[in-house]
Design a protein that fits this description.
Elements lengths: L4 H12 L4 H17 L10 H13 L5 H18 L25 H10 L5 H10 L3 H5 L6 E2 L4 E4 L8 E4 L5 H19 L11 H6 L19 E2 L6 E2 L6 H13 L8 H14 L4 H8 L4 H4 L1 H6 L9 H7 L2
Length: 325
């Protein structure tokens, strides 16, 4: 997979500890960038000062966002603290990026309705969960049948961003569609069970040991399974993964184009819209924070700025001038 034995060993190390494929890919990307920046010196021959120089380079020369710089730091902290067992220590001696995050793009309720009307039927439930429950794209893709509680009308999110668990609301209007989707999952599972090489859905190690037959039970299957079986790169066993999340944004882009919506729309736009419309309907900010799974309420407060009429709620003087003309 990687043309470097060193990077390949990091890949194996992370796979053995059940890091997600996305995390592995991201961390190795930044580790490789760090090595290239330091003229391909081996990381074990470098340390805290070299990492600080690289992070400063990202801020000063590449002008990356604060979140990007933080991801690079997390990647290199993993490299030294976990993989090389050479702790970096206090990492404060680098220039932090000053580039501010963009304000969220939010759809009006009419625009959300237009999007629903133009989305492919195969993705309509997914769009309903992204907007109706404020899910992140990867959280939606990773949903299992057991995560949906139809009686209590909520969704359990396991290991969301920051490895946090949470509950979020479920629109009762989606229940018939969810039941229909669960029926499709059952049909797929029945077909898979006829395949002698099928080893069930992937489960974390602890769950796989505790519930030995759960990997072939309906409740543990992904709510949105992939259309084909795949080979587990670590165990070489045949499993059925969840859908490729990249297809979700493609479907949203196509729907946005058909609906003639001029705003840039992605799966995260629907999450932004969920939060903003909740606040608009009178929900308190702490509740919205819990629904979104934000660690800090300051992250949620950005949506209060979107709600204000005009920047910071200021009325333009032109309005009064025109009114009195």
């Amino acid at each position: 997979m990687y043309n470097s034995d060193f990077l390949q060993s990091i890949n194996h190390f992370m796979l053995a500890r059940r890091y997600s494929k996305r995390t592995i890919s991201t961390y190795i990307l930044w580790i490789k960038a760090y090595i290239n920046y330091k003229e391909k010196r081996h990381p074990k021959d470098m340390g805290q000062e070299d990492v600080s120089q690289f992070l400063t380079h990202l801020a000063v020369k590449r002008n990356v966002a604060a979140s990007t710089q933080r991801t690079a730091l997390n990647s290199l902290a993993f490299l030294y603290n976990k993989f090389l067992d050479q702790p970096l220590g206090d990492m404060n001696e680098f220039k932090r990026t000053r580039r501010q995050a963009n304000l969220p793009v939010v759809l009006t309720e009419s625009e959300v309705k237009l999007l629903f009307q133009n989305i492919s039927p195969n993705y309509r439930l997914i769009i309903g969960l992204l907007y109706g429950s404020g899910l992140r794209r990867i959280e939606c893709a990773r949903l299992r049948v057991n995560d949906i509680d139809l009686s209590l009308k909520h969704i359990r999110i396991w290991n969301g961003k920051g490895f946090k668990h949470r509950f979020t609301t479920l629109a009762p209007e989606l229940i018939p569609t969810i039941n229909n989707q669960i029926g499709k999952v059952q049909q797929v599972l029945n077909e898979d069970l006829l395949n002698e090489h099928f080893t069930g859905v992937w489960l974390p190690n602890a769950l796989a040991r505790k519930y030995k037959h759960a990997n072939k039970e309906l409740g543990w299957q992904y709510l949105f399974p992939s259309i084909k079986l795949s080979l587990d790169p670590q165990t070489k066993s045949i499993k059925r993964h969840h859908i490729d999340e990249s297809g979700i944004n493609k479907a949203i882009f196509q729907a946005r184009t058909k609906a003639n919506i001029t705003k840039v729309v992605s799966s995260h736009t629907l999450r932004h819209s969920f939060a903003t419309h909740l606040l608009q309907a009178g929900a308190d900010i702490r509740t919205v924070q819990q629904q979104l799974g934000h660690s800090d309420v300051k992250t949620t407060e950005i949506y209060t700025h979107v709600l204000k009429q005009g920047a910071q709620g200021v009325k333009s003087p032109l309005s009064s001038l025109i009114k009195n003309m």
